[in-house]
Design goal:
This protein has about 325 residues and is α/β, with parallel strands linked by helices. It contains 11 helices and 10 strands. It has a 5-stranded parallel β-sheet with strand order 2-1-3-4-5, sandwiched between helices. The termini are far apart.
Length: about 325
Amino acid sequence: MATGREPFQIFISHKHDDHEAAARLAAVLSEVDEQIRCFVSGAHLIAGTDWNAAIRTQLQQAHLLLLLFTEPSKNWDWCLYEAGLFTSLGDEHSVVCLYQAGGDAPRPLKALQGVQVTVPQLALFLRQLCTETWQVTRKWRLGGLKHKGAEDDFLAAAQQIAELFPRPRAELASEPNLTHYPCHRVVLDLRGCADAQDRIPDNARVVEGEGATSTFTMSLFNLTRGLRGRTWKDLVDATGEPQGDWLAHLNKRHAAAICEQQFAPALNTPLPVIDPHTGLRRRSDRPMIDEIQRAPAGDLQAAGPEALRPLQLTLVLDPVADNPYPPPATASAPPAA
């Protein structure tokens, strides 16, 4: 609704995966005060628009940039580029980073304003944004958006914003795990593995337990007994073909995934599993790369080779229905003369 007052422009920077959350955040902010206008990239660009020029124009018009920093392990290069471009326009251009409770803002933005996504912290930020607007961004010189605000309104808006963010892992850990995984998963810890960029390292630790590599999955490799602390090499050796084509093909897909390349998910060459008692192949699975978690981008120049390093790899095992290794054919007797 038009108010006759100059609009307060907010540029919401977000990852593509968080587009719905960004749009909902814009709706919440517009309800806090009708003078607030939000630009959400992707939602407010018309098809055929020069999006790069349009984003620059919106950044120049904005009084404030809000960054939705939802998941530190993701790649935030583009959002950090938008924030850097915005601050480069002048000292009066302010950035506020919304980040998970118990977490931290990305390294390049630690010197700037940040708000933990808790209801009290968000309510405090919204109150200051509305009643002491010039304290949040010096680009705004027209006083507070509101001379006063109802505390219940700020708390209600803060609750809606907090619900847009993933719940902290520590909070989820205290609840029963109701997740069902319909297939076998192998989760590997790649932290500390020097060669994790080019191949799946032999010394990658198998993460065992609920929500990771289950005992049932380890039984496929006959590795349910004995000491824990298994490595990827232990699983590879258990297949009976540690130098097989399946591993070479999987390593190529791993290297491609690190570079964010697209590829067919399943291998044509399956991973065999050998029964240690009979020496025969018991079953075969096609391993697929399901997820790679990486370190935060941070300051790429300062971090150097550590930036975006892979931290955890999840493989899904797709069982092969038909036996790709049929027993050798026996010679038939020659036909009678």
